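Re: export button greyed out
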Amino acid sequence: MTALNELTASEAALVLASGEASAEDLMRACLDRVAKRDDTVRAWAFLDPELALANARAADAHRRAGNALGPLHGLPVGIKDIIETADMPTENGSDLFRGQRTGRDADCVARLRNAGAVIMGKTVTTELANTNPSKTRNPHNQEHSPGGSSAGSGAAVADFQVPLALGTQTGGSVIRPGSFNGIHAMKPSLGLVPREGVLMQSHTLDTVGVYGRSVEDLALIANSLSVFDSTDAFSYGGRRPDLVASPEDDLPAPRFAFLETPAWPEAEAGAREAIERVVAGLEGRCVHESLPSPFERILDYHATVMAAEMVPYYGAMIDASPDKASDLIKARLAAARKVSAGDYVEALLARGPINDDLASLLDRYDAVLCLPATGPAPHGFATTGSAIFNGLWTYLGVPCVTLPRLSVDGLPLGVQLVGKPGEDGKLLRCARWLDRELGG
Amino acid sequence: MTALNELTASEAALVLASGEASAEDLMRACLDRVAKRDDTVRAWAFLDPELALANARAADAHRRAGNALGPLHGLPVGIKDIIETADMPTENGSDLFRGQRTGRDADCVARLRNAGAVIMGKTVTTELANTNPSKTRNPHNQEHSPGGSSAGSGAAVADFQVPLALGTQTGGSVIRPGSFNGIHAMKPSLGLVPREGVLMQSHTLDTVGVYGRSVEDLALIANSLSVFDSTDAFSYGGRRPDLVASPEDDLPAPRFAFLETPAWPEAEAGAREAIERVVAGLEGRCVHESLPSPFERILDYHATVMAAEMVPYYGAMIDASPDKASDLIKARLAAARKVSAGDYVEALLARGPINDDLASLLDRYDAVLCLPATGPAPHGFATTGSAIFNGLWTYLGVPCVTLPRLSVDGLPLGVQLVGKPGEDGKLLRCARWLDRELGG
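Workaround output, generated via the alternate export path:
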């Protein structure tokens, strides 16, 4: 029998519902794993075992009392430490926020609690969710990076320390750690999940994402977070698909458009060969395609938007306490200040035509298939790895999923699927099909 | 009896409905006035009298046939020459577009035609609706500017050459010519009127506005243009007030907050004295107020946004044919390219807090009252005058109206009222009350 802490969230929910185990049992199993592995993996920025157990016991009491239960009832969730939590510190991976306790839950955390989730602790983020590497190590090989910026969330889920976690993506901060750590990850459409209470780096890009151990896990947690936020101009109204619905629906086998993307020249040979084997194995179901101009400029567009918007959100606070910021982020800020407004507006305006071209492609295919990273997790800790296969999709605001189905040089590598904005439910159905096809 | 071409649009509509005069009679009166005055005022970029008369006769035939009539039936309207018209050229005041015929109506022009309006001709715009002065002269004194960029629309309505006209405002291009030419003008809320088919200079600022000879005229034409445009992220959905409704409603006498605004130090002594007499005359109905920080930086914020967005819209086309652009606009483009993206994003983000402060003020008052310009129309043609009392409101996207009720040095000066975004109907009711109070 699988250890409680190694179950998928969907499996654990069934075990808790059956009464075979309690939320406290599940939390103890997770905490035991942390106790054994934390010296090596270092995934947590804050973890108070007594608080976590008390929260789990409260969930059990709620269940025993016969109260209504949410879909995440009793499931532990790790929260990236740039997302506010009422009962835990929120330090944003930065000395600028050392010891900060805001005393309130971010909207997404409140929704998790409402769905019954037990907030286990805060997971390590790189400094201000930027590129300065963190203390966290890749659980598959501690000589390698877990990626960033959602380093702790990716590593903790991969290492069976927690079944579910939240991350955020501005460049590649959800999908890349998902690929590097060999787990399932989803960056939803921009506007699916409220960002209130999440450290803002770029309003055009920042997206709350989720980690789990199966496509069903991603759907389960993302569905609890999908809601319109009237205070966020990027949140979308209108119909919201039920991401969990129709798990056994009779979707015809999907067709995929393989895109090398302009990041392809940066990919390692092993990663290229691995993804091309997937494409070949899918035979007629996956076709090499391309997108017209100005798609080839998309990497620059993303970098321009990310840099420009960092200035008002981070500039003043780093200037006020430069001793509390790394040289790396100060250098990035200095470079960002040189971006011209004209280039930035041009980059924003280019999204429309590129999204139109992508939508036309996705009228003919069910999803785009592409690499999620240039290769497996890099050796050493000089960088968190390249986000070049992620920023382009973050820029477009489209939903992305990575499936842990490849291996290169003994390390995990994902397969990334990309859908139309707002069609997160369809993307998850395609992902479930492909995940099974690839042996999941 | 008032000559046909001197009637307000609202009066002319009644005359046409009664059968006392035809649309052709009205158009002939307007064309006669143009024939007499065009050498002096030079308000038209394109005017084909036979085409205008044919369009008027078509309106008369439509009426005689007993067909349904729109609220603007038979009324001549002048269209600023940056707005596309199917049957007339659209030259954008620039050699870059000399002779351009797009063969299609802008959305707002199509809506005017659907409401029964007779498009009379295209009115002069400054070069690309920017600051390079045009050939048009102020009808009150030909040694003075008519303002800009909607120079021809403002001058033609003031000179009784046409009862109604469209303009556009990015800085102060609707309200300032309204004030300088001594007529009623309205820049609606950003998002009230579709911009499709209008030359884009700044998506954050560009707003289609209207000219008339009374507040009722403004309501009449603006109401025909108010519609949601799903292709424009700045167009707003939800409830749209009927701007014409309740002309005799029992609105209690409104209360006004007088704001000097950060532009006040630039105002001429005569203008300051004139507006302060209005404030004093309103006694308890108008109170000196102020807005907190960051309102004092609003002039810079507007200038930053206007410059930054000009780059992608105008940069490439001016670079491609620099001989077809003035030195003035080339110098503005060069300066705009030096604006940093960080400053631009900061300027965009500052709108929210300032609009919140303004909304709080307008919870206690019905409208803001302020100067519409630094003084009357400037002497000579070196500039179109300062837009410093307008850009701040364009930046906030709030509705503005100017009433031609002041005179300084023998030239007209308006009184500007400003409301909450989307509350154009309430602003027009306040404007009608004040217009009567000031002798309209």
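Chain B has a mean pLDDT of 96. The button fix ships in the next patch.
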